[in-house]
Amino acid sequence: MLNERNPIPVVEAIKQVTKYCKKGETEYIELTEARSRVLAEDLIADHDVPSFDRSPYDGYALRSEDTTEVMKNTPKILSVVGHIGAGSVYHKKLEKNQAVRIMTGAPIPDGADAIIMLEDTTTFEESGKSFVSIRKQLQHQQNISFKGEDVKNGTALVNKGTVINPGIIALLATFGYAQVPVAKKPVIGVIATGSELLEIDQPLEPGKIRNSNAYMMIGQLQRAGAIPQYYGALTDNLEESLEKISEVMKEVDFLITTGGVSVGDFDLLPEIYQELGADVLFNKVAMRPGSVTTVAAVNDTLLFGLSGNPSACYVGFELFTRPIIDSFLAKETIGIQQEQATLAVDFSKVNPFDRFIRGRYEFKNGQLVTEPAGKDKSNMVHSLAMANCLIQLPGGTEGYKQGDKVTIHLLGE
Amino acid sequence: MLNERNPIPVVEAIKQVTKYCKKGETEYIELTEARSRVLAEDLIADHDVPSFDRSPYDGYALRSEDTTEVMKNTPKILSVVGHIGAGSVYHKKLEKNQAVRIMTGAPIPDGADAIIMLEDTTTFEESGKSFVSIRKQLQHQQNISFKGEDVKNGTALVNKGTVINPGIIALLATFGYAQVPVAKKPVIGVIATGSELLEIDQPLEPGKIRNSNAYMMIGQLQRAGAIPQYYGALTDNLEESLEKISEVMKEVDFLITTGGVSVGDFDLLPEIYQELGADVLFNKVAMRPGSVTTVAAVNDTLLFGLSGNPSACYVGFELFTRPIIDSFLAKETIGIQQEQATLAVDFSKVNPFDRFIRGRYEFKNGQLVTEPAGKDKSNMVHSLAMANCLIQLPGGTEGYKQGDKVTIHLLGE
């Protein structure tokens, strides 16, 4: 079956896929499990932070007007009438010439309007009473952390769709989120196809290879924030394959197959899509590797028919599956991060299609510089292990030279 | 207790800590769980990849010498004597003027030395026999993926100490690692201190705040690849605190406390270290925030006494605890990634100590540019949520200007 296929541009293919964006639900999880998950509701402050005027230092709370007479050699003596640890409250009002010993974070007592740091004081006892000698003048409101100065009640702090980092966890804790609303992860099925595939724990046989794509996909799905569900490898049998794929589709949000989308006699996916009544969005993309990448839809369940070639499979996932995962998670930014980088080497080879080269980027004095991660024949899985980006070289040009600016897609490792 | 403390430079403090590097053990885990873990053994190819000469295309395997007479209008007709799917082997030897239909990835049959792509052929049947018409001359060894051309048997592919990404997972699958040797994660205890702390599910009370540092730490520990073990918050009671900390130390590889390391009357950690007979490596670092950061050692168990101030706690963790985790995991690179970036704003404030500002970096035409993530008073947890780097401003200078190059520490979000 040697079908005529019309390649569509990469950008157009991505647009086709993202039309089918399916949004997931919200679930509540423990705060200790929230890191790297996607916040499903805006985080809005429901109280001021600090929630009371407090001391930023260890020292003494006092009335600044009592320090106006302090001169270089004339300290002022105040009577120490209390002691406030963090978490405690001084319940009386501070009177003239009184001071209260106060710890970092403790609330400013009534009547006090300034804090003097411990190192600017001397304490002593006389007749069983405590005194503090003040060596500095203080201004009204000096050294006070004011109620709401960090965050005002009602402030929108973090937008939904943001990936939760440790700083956001601190905010969630501050506002009492023992349970955190996050986007439910999509469950994505993975099926490898091809009679040549051995499982990873099987010994090699002539003509066969171990199934590496499915495990690679599982890693890529985890990295993208999805839950991979691996359904094993299918041999090249149409009826069995069709039955398995129909079953699996009921259990997953999306399905990825690797292999079987080319024009070989055993490439069964095109026929399976037909049997399923799937709407084939495209079956050829103007890119290398992965030109045979196919995406089909049955209602709102997308079937990603990725190439059996490891690099093509990898690239197809990052370009086409990742945005769908981001949409499902309702992330603020959709798809893999793209930046401009300087090429460190020449690419003389001209190609009518866009090329996606497994690359490495690094910083040279703060500037993004990129080069290929290794040999670049598309069957070479070794360079995938070294890659931290994909270098995009638009097709139909004169080739690229060292120093040219190119787009790189950051893989996020 | 107003101790005299001698601040040591940040670099010196890091050096002190990393002297105590404790290396973890190796454990074996499922390949599907291996992503983001640290490889504990060098990954060395134990067979060639491909492990046999194979076809890179769908097409026909043939003897190139049979195509020497092919001219533009004179195709050569070969007899099709077999059909090899991927995973199958053709067990006979190819004779003169014979061809075998072959799929991508299938082994080259004996006697064949070239592959012609399907699109350069026409097939037909005559008297019940299959023939293929060849329209191209082929060279000896044309279109063959050779045994070992991707990876040669014995090649060192990935060094131990490397973080496992999806490409490395593909390699591990290829070489049959159903179980993967990875560095065991360190178990790190987290204890918050301070009578002012409420748990996250408790309602606010006057003078009290919810415990956010411990949860933030848990997130930072997860990000750094450790297993956090949270032991709750201690009130400011020496005896109870000492007992709890002594107990916990038996269960963890390292212990982090937050709060209680300053000079306040309720800052109990200095006394606890003394009671434990701990070797205090330093109790003051020439940095802001976090100058009171203290690290002590009991044998090879490090006790990180981080500040109770959220930003100081955060910075102290990234500078001092993270390298220890990396060492424990025997990572190839130790400590947080540092790069040069261009400042987008002025910092006029002069400080004798190094400052670590919560920052954001982004790329402007491939160039790292950085600015503060928000307000920078050290109690302001909001800017921590927005930060993706720490901007390091060395102390004792004239301040910094927009356009200056500064070191940033990438937080890895």
UniProtKB/TrEMBL annotation, chains A, B:
Lipoprotein is among the record's keywords: no
Domain of life: Bacteria
GO term, biological process aspect, one: Mo-molybdopterin cofactor biosynthetic process
A single GO cellular-component term on record: cytosol
Pfam families: MoCF_biosynth, MoeA_C, MoeA_N
Keyword Transferase: yes
Name of this protein: Molybdopterin molybdenumtransferase
